[in-house]
Structure formats: C-alpha cells, structure tokens
Design brief:
There is one protein chain. The chain is α/β, with parallel strands linked by helices. It has a single domain, classed as Rossmann fold, CATH 3.40.50. The chain has a four-stranded parallel beta sheet with strand order 1-4-2-3, with helices on one face. The protein is globular, with a radius of gyration of 14 Å.
Length: about 140
C-alpha cells in the first residue's frame, strides 16, 4: 500500500520501493481491491526481500513492520505504527489503507518543503518502505 500511495502522490519528490522481512509471493486480493477503489493499481507489485534491496542508497527508510530492522540504514529511519491487516476483513484493510495514505501524504508534504538546494534535497531523495509479511 505504501509504495502504491508514494508512487501515485509523490513521484516528484521520491522514488518508492518496498521490501519485507518475510515477503509474501503475491499482493493480497483485499489489498488490490482496496487500492483499486482509490484508483491505484498494485496488481503488478510484489514483495521483495530486504536481502534483494540496496538499502544503503536510501535517504529515508520507512519501517512499518513493527520489528527492528536487521540492517542499519545510513539514512533517516521512520517507524510508522501500522497494524498488518492480513487475515482481517475488508473494513480493516480500508482503515489500514486510509492510515497509510495519510502517513505517506505527510511524508510527501515534508519532502516538498525541503529546499532543492539542500543536501539530499527533494530532487534526489529516495524512500524505502520495509514491510513485514504480505504486501499491504
């Protein structure tokens, strides 16, 4: 979910990718439905393992797993307290999507306030969303 929102709303200030501690092989049907209702297609997304990501290249890492990261990113780390909706009903998925959407929009607004001339200014910023479990 976070990657989908970031790509839809913030492609001018960040490059979003997602990876997981225990990635699932597919994006859940409910995730796809809830995101489609927001006009975001995540059907082509897939969870990657953090072992497959060059995490050290990111200026910002967003951790929504609820667990400590097994690596120490060089950039700023944001910890977002988001419950994993896997196994819950559609209403919980919708609430989770709304929460993640607001968090992503807040980050995008923060990045847009950064001067372009500042080291790591918004034209060069990247973000990484680390997830635990099935793609949210």
């Amino acid at each position: 979910m976070a990657e989908g929102f970031a790509k839809k709303y913030g492609s001018d200030v960040l490059q979003a990718e997602s990876a997981g501690l225990y990635p699932a092989s597919t994006v859940s049907r409910l995730t796809q439905e809830v995101m489609a209702a927001k006009n975001i297609d995540v059907s082509g997304h897939f969870a990657k393992s953090i072992a497959d990501v060059e995490y050290e290249k990111y200026h910002i890492v967003v951790n929504i797993s609820g667990h400590m990261l097994p690596v120490e990113p060089k950039g700023r780390v944001l910890h977002w307290d988001v419950d994993d909706p896997i196994g819950a009903d559609k209403k919980v998925f919708e609430e989770t999507a709304d929460q993640i959407e607001m968090l992503v929009q807040g980050l995008i607004l923060e990045l847009r306030k950064k001067p372009k001339s500042e080291p790591g200014g918004w034209r060069t910023r990247r973000t990484q969303s680390w997830k635990d479990g099935e793609s949210r």
